[in-house]
Structures are given as structure tokens and as C-alpha cells.
Description:
Largest sheet: 7 strands, mixed
CATH architecture: 3-Layer(aba) Sandwich
CATH topology: Aminopeptidase
Helix content: 25-40%
CATH superfamily: Gcn5-related N-acetyltransferase (GNAT)
CATH class: Alpha Beta
Number of strands: 7
Bound molecules: coenzyme A
Amino acid sequence: MRIRPTLERDIQWLPEVERSAAQAFAAWPALAWLAQGDVMDRERHRAFVDAGGSWVAEDLEGHILGFACARLEDQALHLHEVSVRREAQGQGVGRMLLQQVVDAARQMGARELTLTTFAEVPWNAPFYARFGFEVVDEESLNARLRGILARELAHGLTGRCAMRLYVGP
Ligand SMILES: CC(C)(COP(=O)(O)OP(=O)(O)OC[C@H]1O[C@@H](n2cnc3c(N)ncnc32)[C@H](O)[C@@H]1OP(=O)(O)O)[C@@H](O)C(=O)NCCC(=O)NCCS
């Protein structure tokens, strides 16, 4: 398995990878609807690829197991999505993708890596916390993160929190 930048030819597979990843939520009653939810379309993926903010994990046969995409926003690299195929979850692929995004954030000169996620879902906030991220409490939210959480809430995503990892010098 290796992590590499996403290429144009990979984009066709990424919506299906995200749909497969979302099956993890099927066993979580309050969020089971996410298993059938919308996924990022090819155009959105292409924008991340064109900006150098998309990576895939592929197995030895070249099958895509997962992807991560992120964008520089102010002085932060913001992780928009990380998804690992349902059958490949729990084997360290997500952690390797996340490490790639951390390395990219440092190379880009970002001060921090940020994301929003479900606070109570075991493979979301607790996973990021073990990685070193901290929850940004309500009073410390900047306008950017506050805006992302508000838009997510408007789309029915409750129980979300923002997290950050300092990556600067
Ligand atoms: C989140 C996700 C990308 C993690 O990828 P992964 O390849 O399964 O993760 P890893 O195997 O590297 O495991 C990362 C950690 O999560 C834990 N984990 C993974 N799946 C889990 C599950 N179903 N239940 C509990 N913990 C889980 C692992 O034990 C591991 O713990 P560690 O920190 O002690 O190492 C993947 O589970 C996924 O695609 N989920 C659905 C989409 C999603 O939730 N994306 C994140 C949006 S913020």
C-alpha cells in the first residue's frame, strides 16, 4: 500500500470510494442516513487535485483504497474529506492518509491543520484526538470554522466539532 498524489485518472473512482466508506455509518443509528448520503462529485475532486491538495492510498495492484483532500484556507490547511473503503477500514490506511496531509501542511507552510468531524463517532473525533488534534472550543472558533459548522448544521449534520493540529514551527 502506498500514498501518492491523486491523478486525473483516479478521480472516476473517488465517489464510489466515499460511498463505500460511508457504510461505516450504517451501524450508527443516529447517522445511518449518511450511508446513503451525497458524496463529492468529480468536479469537486478535480478542484482539489488541480490545487495539489488530494492524495490516494492504493494497494499493490493499483486499486484505490482511500483518499484525502484538503485546501489552504487562511493560514490553515483544512481537511475536507478522508475516506477509506469499508473493507479496507481499520488497517491503518486512514492514519497514513492523515499523516500525508500533516506532511503536506508543513511543506505548504501552514500554521495548522483543521477539520470538522462528529464528536461522538469513534472513528471520527476520538481518532483525530489520538493523532494529536484538539477540539476548538466554542469561544475559540474563528469565523471560518464557525461558518463551516453552521453550514454543516444547515445540512442536518448535528454533533459536529472543529479540531486543530498545530503544524507550524
Ligand atoms: C475515518 C476513516 C477515514 C479512518 O480510516 P481507517 O483506515 O479505518 O483508519 P485506521 O485503520 O488508520 O484507524 C484509525 C483509528 O480509528 C480507529 N477505527 C477505525 N475504524 C473504527 C471503527 N469502526 N470503530 C472504532 N474505531 C475505529 C482505529 O482503531 C484506529 O485507532 P488508533 O488511533 O488507535 O490507531 C474511515 O474509518 C472512514 O472512511 N470512515 C467513514 C468516513 C469518515 O468518517 N470520514 C471522516 C470524516 S471527518
